Amino acid sequence: MRRRDFIRNVAAAGAGAFVLRSVPQTFAQTVEGRIEILMDEPFGTISPNIYGHFTENLSGVIYDGIWVGENSKVPNVGGIRKELVDEMRKINPPVVRFPGGCFADSYDWRDGIGPVDKRPRRTNFWNGGEKPEAPDSHRYDPNRFGTNEFVQFCRLIGAQPYLAANLRSLPAQEFNRWIEYCNSPAGSTTLADMRAAAGFKDPFNVHYWGVGNESWGCGGNFTPQEYAVEYRRFTAWAPGYPGADLHFVASGPSDNGWDWTRGFLEEIVRKGKDQVRGIFGLALHYYAWNLSRGKTNDWNQGKGDAVKFDAVDWYELLRQGDVMESLIKGHWLVMSEYDPEHLIRLVVDEWGPWYKPGSELTPGDQIEQLPTLRDAVFSGLTLDTFNRHADKVGMGCCAQLINCLNSLYLAHEDRFCVTPVGHVFAMYAAHQGGTSLRTEFSAPSIHYDRDGQIASFWGLQGSASLHGKELVLTAVNPDVKNPKEAQIVIRGAKVKNGSATVLTSSDIHAHNTFDQRQAIVPATAQVEIKGDAPVFRFPAASVVKLTLTLA
Ligand code: AHR
Predict the structure, then answer these.
(1) Given CA atoms 137, 140, 142, 145 in this order, what sign does their dihedral have?
(2) Which tens digit of pLDDT belongs to each residue from 302-349?
(3) CB neighbour list of residue 17: distance below 8 Å, 6 or more residues apart
(4) Could you tell which of 2, 98, 285, 407 is best to mutate to test the pocket of ligand 1, judged by most ligand atoms within 8 Å of the CB?
């Protein structure tokens, strides 16, 4: 089964049996590495939006995760879970995507505005995959959390809203009207009056608009050429208002779907080369899911377990994460055929690992999984990849914020925890807005047994950014056993002092739960300066941030 078929047959996507293997014993040893930061080779500002999030009306993401209701015993701010707001404020979230995902192309934004007691209940797109015992709100959308509540959530956490519009089942006029509802000045239109009646006199000024989602699949089953025509129709003469600079994100490829990128852009420019000016970003979706080591491409059979895995699964997942780099480079190359000036950015608005069901902290939550240290390393690796391609990646949205795939947070009723992925976002927030610097990592490769064959994976990788006199270096050591000591050579500057934040554990399966919220948390460490160069020992299976103050 392929991912698109899985979504079509969502009700049938059941759990497969898992295989539990033991972690093979290897000998611990320290190896030498070198990290060279080239101060005179900057390649772009790291858009804060790379550190964005994704929230879909899917199972426990919105109802239970974000929205608990004003009358809930769970501490809340106008119905929005307070602990989530408090935690998110710590990570400086730049942007949040809503309401989907596949849900977006089934959603009528009008259902989610107006007096709450008059809002209709609708069958949720994901209803087919919900268990019979799932709460009503997961199966039949109460529309209690709509545009106003989402924008309020964004305001509370200091993020920009990124709305994904329905291109499959609503006409273009409704897209324009949603923009009008959000952005038309106070008192100017009937929709602005409706917004004011809900307590929002001033416009929301929503800049970011997704134009459909996965239009090759759940978003309409279009060919890239058909979608390009729809994209032009939806975005041409969309209403502009003062205060909102419309940034449209086109539904892009999944994985290495070069044909989608090429077919879409080929059709877009058939109307004229300058048509690329109407596209802020091309969305790329990439999930790491196949841990079968080449045995199958079946969407259900190929997936691994989120928590019960051995060292080979650890490396295989990271290997899949590492594919992101070639996807960015590959799509960028195809984009250059039609957009040689590179006006269009890549918007990786869905990324993360996707495991088989069974690890969810809230039994019954569909597509929820329990992130471990492995996912923290995967996330650090991915964010470092985005930083290294700061000239190409304009936005990234981790899938998804809470109670879902690569979630930063898990919550149920009055219980809550920050996952290791959430801790990585807190550490990496320091990169936002910095100048990405070319950074060369050299460390001995890791070798591991892959079904009787020796497989290799790099030994240390990361990214660096400059913020005035402060240099932020992040790196992951994927080696499950061996720490890596590395000398950090900064070409063109001297380091005065430094400090480190380290996320690791002696157990590669380490994770937080509602009962053990602190099982894995970041720790601080010293950075030694030997001669002119800092030296740091990157623990086995770790994500590290070094903050270096330059002389
Ligand atoms: O994130 C879950 C789903 O994965 C999204 O709804 C869809 O866009 C993707 O296939």
Answers:
(1) positive
(2) 999 999 999 999 999 999 999 999 999 999 999 999 999 999 999 999
(3) none
(4) 285
| Model confidence band, residue 18 (pLDDT cutoffs 50, 70, 90) | very low
Q: How far apart are CA 278 and CA 290, in angstroms?
A: 35
Three-state SS string across 90-109, please?
A: CCCCCEEEECCCHHHHHCCH
Q: Calculate ∠ Cα 236-241-246, nearest 5°.
A: 55
| d(CA 473, ligand 1 centre) in Å | 32
337 flagged as catalytic = no
Helix (H) or strand (E) run with residue 149 in it: helix 147-157
Could you give the angle at which helices 258-270 and 224-235 cross, rounded to 10 degrees? Answer: 50
The response to whether residue 349 sits with its C-beta less than 6 Å from ligand 1 reads no
Is-catalytic flag, 133? Answer: no
**What would the pLDDT profile of 439-488 be if each residue is shown by its tens digit?**
999 999 999 999 999 999 999 999 999 999 999 999 999 999 999 999 99
For a substitution probing ligand 1, which of 8, 53, 56, 287 has the most ligand atoms within 8 Å of its CB? 56
Q: 3-class DSSP state for residue 160?
A: strand
Q: Which atom belonging to ligand 1 lies closest to the Cα atom of 254?
A: 10
User: Considering only CA atoms, which of 74, 126, 131 is closest in space to residue 103?
Assistant: 126
Q: Are 376 and 503 within 8 A, CB to CB?
A: yes
The CB of 252 under 6 Å from ligand 1? The reply is: no
Under 8 Å between Cβ of 484 and 33: yes
Q: Read out DSSP for 287-321?
A: EE---STTS---TTTT---SSS--HHHHHHHHHHH
- Which two three-digit tokens encode residue 281? 């970003």
Closest Cα to atom 6 of ligand 1: 101
DSSP 190-250: HHHHHHHHTT--S-----EEEE-SSTTTTTT---HHHHHHHHHHHHTTPPPBTTB--EEEE
The token pair that represents 205 in the structure block: 């000024």
DSSP 8-state class, residue 63: B
Q: How many CA atoms lie within 13 A of 440 on its CB side?
A: 9
Please tell me whether residue 36 adopts helix, strand or coil conformation. strand
